[in-house]
Design brief:
heterodimer, A: mainly beta, Rossmann fold, Neuraminidase, five-stranded antiparallel beta sheet, 31 strands, B: alpha+beta, 60s Ribosomal Protein L30, Chain: A, 2 domains, four-stranded mixed beta sheet, 56% helix
Chain lengths: 439, 183
Amino acid sequence: MISKTLKLTLLFLLMALMLSFKVQANLTIRITQGSDQTTPVAIVPFSWKGEGALPEDVARIVSDNLQRTGLFEAIPRENLVSLPSSSADVIYRDWRLLQADYLLVGSIDRADNGEDLVINYELFDVLAEERLLGERVTSSSRELRSRAHFISDRVYQELTGQRGIFSTRLAYVTAEPREGEGSYQYRLHVADADGQRSRTVLTSREPILSPDWSPDGTKLAYVSFERGRPAIYIQEVATGSRYQLTNYRGLNGAPAWSPDGKQLALTLSRDGNPEIYIYRLEERRLIRVTHHYSIDTEPSWSPDGKKLIFTSSRSGGPQIYQVNLESGNIGRLSFEGNYNARARYSPDGNEVFMVHRESGGGLFSIAALNMETGRLRTLTTSPLDESPSVAPNGSMVIYALMRGDQGVLGVVSTDGRIKYELPAERSDVREPAWSPFLN
Amino acid sequence: MDLMKYSKPFALAAVLALVAGCGGSGGTQPADETEDEVTAEEVQTSDGAETSAAGEESGANAEAMGEDAMDAMRPEVMTIYFDFDKSNIRSEFYDVLNGHAAYLQANPDAQVVLEGHADERGTREYNMALGERRGNSVQRYLSLQGVSADQMEVVSYGEERPVVRAADTAEEHAKNRRVEFVY
C-alpha cells in the first residue's frame, strides 16, 4: 500500500510534471499499482549554497527514480528530522527512529572554474551504521539531470546488486491528429527513461513504427511510410543522419538488431509472402531464414545471437516459434492462448515477453513465458496491450496500451508487482523501445 | 485536307460557339436579357481567345461525359471486409470483386492500389502482414478473373489507418478489417 503522504507527493509530482509538459512535451508518470514490500530510504535534499536556484533537484530525481522501481519507498521530505549533507552530520539513531533502512545525503558546490558543479554524495546503511558509498561527481549545470540519473544507478546497484536503468533512454512514436484533416502527424521521439527530456528525431505525415535500438545505443532502425510504402531506415540518434536500408516490393518491417550489431533480422514479403530474413550490414547480404506460406514476422534475437524467436501463423493463429540459426531447426514455444505474438527475450534469455490472449478471452495482455518450464505469467490486464520491450537489466517491461481512447505507454515490473504509465498530452503514444545500457 | 481542318481546332470551336449561340437565342427557356447579350458578343467576336475559351468548354464537357461513362462501369463499393485474423474473401463480396475485375479489364490503363488494413487488436507488425495477405487475396482473385498484374499493387497499412479510431465494439473492429480499392 502506498501511504497517504506518498500519494499526495505523487499527485504533486504529477501536477508539477504536467506543468512542465507544456514546455517540453515530455511524458508524465502516473503510478497505477504500487508495492507493499518496499525498503524505506531517506533521501535528504542535497545542500546548495551557491547563488540562485539549481536547474534540477538532484535528490528529488534520485528519489523518484528509486521509488519507480517499486523496491524502495522514499520517506517524505516533511518527515525528515534533520538535513545532513555529509557523514559528519549524520546521527544514525535519528534515522533508525524514522525507520529508514538507508540514508542518502549530498552537497552541490560550484567548481573551482566557477562554472561547473561538484556533487558529493554518500549512502549509509542505517542499521549497520556503515557508509556504503561516497563519491564526488562533477557536472555542468546542463548535465545535472544526467548526473542525478547516474547517482540513482550507483545507489540502486549498491542496494540491489543489479545495474540501474536510470541513465537509459526510451524511443517511442506519437501520433497527433492534424487540425481539420483526418490525418496524423507522426513523430519518433527519444527521451530519458523517466519520460523527461523528450526530443523528436523524425517527423512524418505517414506512419512510423517498430523502432529498435542498436546494441551500442547509437542508432535506431525503424519502419517509415514516408514515401507511401513501408521502408526500413537506420538513423544515428546523436546526429540525425540516416539512410534507407531496405525498400523491397511489399512489406519491409520489424527490424531487430543482432546482439553484435552487425546484422538485422527483418520481415520482407519480396518473395511473395511475409518471411524472416537476416541482413548482414557489412556484406550488404540478405539471408532468408523462414520458408512457409503462413505469416512469419516480428523476429527477435536470443542474447547469445544464435537463435531467433518470431511470430508465425503456421498453426492457424499467431504463435511464437524459435529458429536455431546454426541448424535451421524450428520449434514452437507458445501453446497456451489463441494469440501469442511479438516476443522479446529477457536479457538473461530465461524468459520471453510477448502479447498474449487467452483462449476464449478477449484481452490482449503482456505475458512472460518461461523458456525452461513453459509456464506463462500474465503481467497486464488492460484490453489492448502490445509492443513489449524489456529494460536492459531485465527488471521492467515497457509496452503500449489504450487508456480510454488514448494510447499511452505502460511500464510493468517483470514480477508484475509494479505498474506505472507514461501518457502524453493530445498525442497517442505507442511503439516503445527501451535502449540498452548507455554508460 | 482533313489534317489541316483538325489542326485548327478554333475553327471547329467557332462553329460550336455559333451553334451554342443559336441555341441560346432560339431555345425554349425564357430569354434572359444579359444572357442574350453575352451570347451575341461571343458570336460577334471571333478572335482566338474567345474561340479557344469555347473550345475548352466543349472539351470539358466531353471529359465530364467520359467520366460519367466510366463511373457507371466502376463498382460503387470500394471496400470489402474480412473476419478477424483471416484473409480469405467472404462470398458476399464476390460480386464487388467481379465488378472491379470487369472494370479493370475494360480499362487496361486503369491502375488500382489494393490497400490492406487490420483492426487495432493484436500486434502492429503481425497486422501489417495480415493487411498484406488481405490485399494479396484480392489481387489473386482479380488475377484469376483476368486482370493484368501491371494494373494492381498491394500496400498494407496494417492497423495504422483505422476507419474507426479506438474501436471498441465488434462492429467497429469489423469496419477496420478491410481492403480498399484506390484508383
